[in-house]
Amino acid sequence: MNLFDVYSLYDIEPVRGKGSKVFTADGTEYLDLYGGHAVISIGHAHPEYVKAVSDQVARLGFYSNSVQNSLQTKLAEKLGRVSGYPDYSLFLCNSGAEANENAMKLASFTTGRSRILAFGKAFHGRTSGAVAATDNPAIQAPFNRTDNVLLVPLNDMEGMRKALATEEFAAAIIEGIQGVSGIHEPSPEFLHALSDECKKTGTLLILDEIQSGYGRSGKFFAHQHSGIRPDIITCAKGIANGFPCGAVLISPVIEAKKGMLGTTFGGNHLACAAAIAVLDVMEKENLVENAAKVGEYLITELRKIPGVKDVRGRGLMIGLEVEGFTGSDLRKRLLFDHHIFTGGAGQYTVRLLPALSLSTEEADRFLSELKKVIL
């Protein structure tokens, strides 16, 4: 049997990692400023994380959601406190796409409405409902296309208000910071207006914080820079530092009913152990604050480099564009000539999504190597 050939692969295989570095089998070191799509939040092979997962798998790796699992309760209490949402409820699943599927389903159950409002250049996942709310027809099969989703441009006040005024929408779903599109932010004014219009029209507001959450922006959730409180928040990526895990944070105004949501693997013992360890490390090592500090430093220094024509983002969620380079060309030069992993978005943007523990010294190494490429 062969692998189904859907990925474009670099001819590099990391076999181990430590902190913000990964290594190939021959010992070649690479600085990892991408973290496998923003998944590595506390660094590769963090010893506290390794111990927590190892200890748990030696006790009990899995049992179903038909029995008590006190690790779920512990995770919910800790996540509520650390995130600033202690009064919300937690539903655990396996991925970001699944979190968004459940969020939209929950909104439809709650409101009795069938439509979803999403925004231009959005990416919410590749499963059926999530990909329908994603602004990329190339990854939508005919089965996924539906009139139940309407896209309006990001930050388009008039278009958003006109759509919600119909009172047809179960929810509006928006990313705290758009990642796949190339790091684009909804303005604070737009988020406030969206929140107000949702309340006015009985529409639930879903904040997709799958890439922009978990401390990456320099606050626990990117929307907290604007001071709004959505009805539903979705998480994944960095929640468990590489162990498959997703989460839906649900406002207390939304009533749970037995059987309305469900999952086999979501919230399993190993996932919870991993996610609890992530939060423990984030608190002990002040990683949200570090993301804010090192991210601000990186953004400031990048803007000083001749040839860097645009830098966007907050914290350690950064997009940059460089004169004379496509994003793909710059990424390849950094990877193969300078041993630095970065990510892409669109034709020209390079994304930086390193571990939240990235040091200023590691940021300086990147800045130095970037200058060698472009100057």
Strands, helices and their partners?
Elements: E1 14-18, E2 21-24, E3 29-32, H1 35-38, H2 47-59, H3 70-83, E4 89-93, H4 96-111, E5 115-119, H5 128-132, E6 149-152, H6 157-164, E7 169-175, H7 188-201, E8 204-208, E9 232-235, E10 246-250, H8 269-284, H9 287-302, E11 308-314, E12 317-322, H10 327-338, E13 340-341, E14 343-345, E15 349-352, H11 360-374
Parallel strand pairs: 3-13, 5-6, 5-7, 7-8, 8-9
Antiparallel strand pairs: 1-2, 2-3, 4-10, 9-10, 11-12, 12-15, 14-15
In short:
This protein has eleven helices and 15 strands.
Structural class: alpha/beta
- Report the CATH C-level class of the largest domain: Alpha Beta
Query: What is the tally of helical segments?
Result: 11
Distance between the termini: 47 Å
The quaternary structure here is single chain
CATH topology of the largest domain: Aspartate Aminotransferase, domain 2
CATH superfamily descriptor of the largest domain: Type I PLP-dependent aspartate aminotransferase-like (Major domain)
- Identify the strand order in the major beta sheet: 4-10-9-8-7-5-6
Strand residue percentage: 15-25%
Q: In the CATH hierarchy, what is the architecture of the largest domain at level 2?
A: 3-Layer(aba) Sandwich
Envelope shape: globular
Measured as a percent range, the helix fraction is 25-40%
Rg from alpha-carbon coordinates: 20 Å
Q: How would you state the average pLDDT, rounded?
A: 97
Q: Report the major sheet.
A: 7 strands, mixed
Contiguous low-pLDDT stretches (5 residues minimum) are none
Q: How many runs of DSSP E, i.e. beta strands?
A: 15
What is the element string, with H for helices and E for strands?
Answer: EEEHHHEHEHEHEHEEEHHEEHEEEH
Number of domains: 2
